[in-house]
Amino acid sequence: MQESQIDWTFLVMAAPFLAAFVAPLLKRLLGSGASWILAAAPAAMFVYFLGLIAPVASGSVIANGFAWAPSLQINFSYRLDGLSLLFALLVSGIGTFILIYAGAYLKGHAHQGRFFSFILLFMGAMQGLVLADDFMTLFVFWELTSITSFLLIGFDHTREAARRAALQALVITAGGGLCLLAGLLMMTGLVGVHSMTEAIALGSSFAENPYYLPVLILLLGGAFTKSAQFPFHSWLANAMEAPTPVSAYLHSATMVKAGVYLLLRVHPFMGETVPWMTILPLFGGATLLAGTLLALRQTDLKLILAYTTVASLGLLVMLTGTSNETAILGALVYLLAHSLFKGGLFMMAGSVDHEAGTRDLRELGGLGLKMPVTFLSGLVLAWAMGGLFVTLGFFAKEAMYEGLLHGEGTTPVTLGVAVVGNGLMFAAAFAVGLLPFIGKRPENLSGAHEGPIGLWIGPLVLACLSVAGIVFAAFTQEALIGPTLAAVAGARPHPDLSYAIHVNEAFAASCVTWAIGILALLALRPVRRGLAASLDAIGWGPDRGFDQLVNGLTNGSAAVTRFIQNGDLERYLSITFTVLALALIVPLVVFGEWPHVPETFALAPHEWAVMGLAAVGLVAVIVAENRLTAIVSLGIQGFAVALIYMLFGAPDLSFTQFMVETLSVVILALVMTRLSLMTADRRNYFQRAKDGTIALACGIGTAALLIAVTNQPFDSRLSDFFAEHSRTIAHGRNIVNVIIVDFRGLDTLGEIAVVMITGLAILALLRFPAPWRPTRAVEEEK
């Protein structure tokens, strides 16, 4: 039975990617109706995960994998416990309705098939992320969510705003992904764990590890950017440039929850420490307040919801940072409730926009009778978001207040931030779910009507689940929240999940929350004007800062390029050989490795003759009156080297050197005749001194390095290996040829490639038209 589950789990992980592959074809064959067929894939995944509730609720952890890169100890592995199962159910369940919704919302769109592929790839990436156990598997899926979200946010690529939003999301989340990678590599290389299962086994002992703090900061960098914590929150609101189905999925069950998932996943071995309980509440609380204030500033329904998502993510991070079991219980119930009401509200807002032609709150009103199902769904979803009775949101709020009031690791400031933030979210929820449907209907909305079933089935079902989750509290507690809390808190708690009202301090905090929300809703317009004036007075913000950062990097790189790549070949060569000389000489001097130069050289007469020949060639190059003569004289150096090879018993190398040097002289001379160059070197004294100094430094550095190497005791292991195996392994008698062709075949291939590229460049030069000849006026000027 276990083997069957493992096989099916891998198939379920692959299902979204397989569906993405066939999505364009199905769209071409069935039109927008293909969305119902494609929705069968996440629906089947949801049913499969439902079947795993019983073993996971009993305390089992379903895990398996296979070797992906054995030499690097990387496995493709998954881990199914309460936390990953809850997320998998949300990803697949809400994803089912998102696909159905997209079929109706984007009906007639020219690229709907492409959109289906992108959204299914996004679904597969998020599902792989929450199921992954191995660190590198987790990172691959983590980055895949960034890439697929980039494609979805920039789906309407003809608009500059969509392209900018996609780029901003990719830059911020991918930058955080690099932090995550560094943290995971530290866990692997320095701590010695390769998977979440191994890390969880460390428990609280990891807090005593000297690498705890740098790993924590790096992992928080990944989590905070992914879950849009202040000051990285601006990308999430700008992501509203994506089509509404993307917004609904992104904000409810997928990428923005990835950072929260990571924090909950690492809590068993990284939580309950002073840095954890300081950094997370601080950033989470700031994000909660910033998100709610920015939400009330907006008039666009999607932007209001987007900023409340920022606020909700801040609330989840703040509660997770308390490491308080009751507060974390509230966070988990709120996570479930938020996924339901936020996905539904986004789809509801899209339906209003689709049917009324606008989502500007100032232009909406009186749509209740025109769109009754949408109105009912929006009202219930706003009720849940406001934390009112008989919804999951109500219990989540009560639990988090209970934990913040009486739990360890909390302060009155944290409670106050939660109460104010929840109150302002209450106002934002009813601004979206209620105000568009009541009051006087503008004349331009007279044609608005209820949309097709694909537009309202998702919000209606999610609204019902927001209530059913607390009505059937026993199932929610035993099947979903209890196992998830066990995975996060590291123990098996017994949460008292119910819709009962307990008149206590937590309920009093709830009453204060509702009072703040009602007052803010009634005074929404003056509050909006006040916030707008305040934000305009502040001016600068992270969103503008992102543009300034990108512009600064672009201008800075352009300036560096203009300085380094200015088109002056002489400067290129000077910089290159200066760096070479420094790289040769500085290490020898700094580390005291400068070699002892022999006072005398024991050379035979014929060896002195070869050295003299090289010296003659050097003098000929220096005193040459034109470049052509210098090039021919330069060949003398190469011939002298070839003679040295021959004298020391390497005739094959000598022959190669003769051929290369001859060809080099001929090709260089041929190229020089095709280029318009001055016949003689007209550099001034300073230029000659500079170039001569660089040349001498390179020569001295090379000679010193070679002398230092030859002064070391000869290690014959490599030579012995080649001598021993050239015949038995490579079947060759000539050891040099065997080394070049077999043992170092890739080096030889690279050298051949360099020669080929050089030949192509020379061919391009030879195909130039006849060189330009200067006029008499130019000659006289010279």
Automatic annotation (TrEMBL):
Residues 132-416 form the NADH:quinone oxidoreductase/Mrp antiporter transmembrane domain. Pfam families: MbhD, MbhE, Proton_antipo_M, Proton_antipo_N. Residues 687-769 form the MrpA C-terminal/MbhE domain. Residues 613-675 form the MrpA C-terminal/MbhD domain. One of its GO terms (molecular function) is antiporter activity. The chain crosses the membrane at residues 6-26, 38-63, 83-103, 115-132, 138-155, 167-191, 211-232, 244-264, 276-296, 303-321, 327-352, 373-395, 415-439, 451-475, 506-524, 572-591, 603-623, 630-648, 654-673, 694-714, 748-766. GO terms for biological process: monoatomic ion transport. InterPro entries: CPA3_Na-H_Antiporter_A (IPR050616), MrpA_C/MbhD (IPR025383), MrpA_C/MbhE (IPR046806), ND/Mrp_TM (IPR001750), Nuo/plastoQ_OxRdtase_6_NuoJ (IPR042106), Proton_antipo_N (IPR001516). The keyword Cell membrane applies. It is found in: Cell membrane; Membrane. One of its GO terms (cellular component) is plasma membrane. It is a multi-pass membrane protein. Its main location: membrane. Keywords: Antiport, Cell membrane, Ion transport, Membrane, Transmembrane, Transmembrane helix, Transport. Residues 71-116 form the NADH-Ubiquinone oxidoreductase (complex I) chain 5 N-terminal domain. PANTHER family: NA(+)/H(+) ANTIPORTER SUBUNIT, NA(+)_H(+) ANTIPORTER SUBUNIT A. NCBIfam families: PRK12647.1. This is Multisubunit sodium/proton antiporter, MrpA subunit. It comes from Afifella marina DSM 2698.
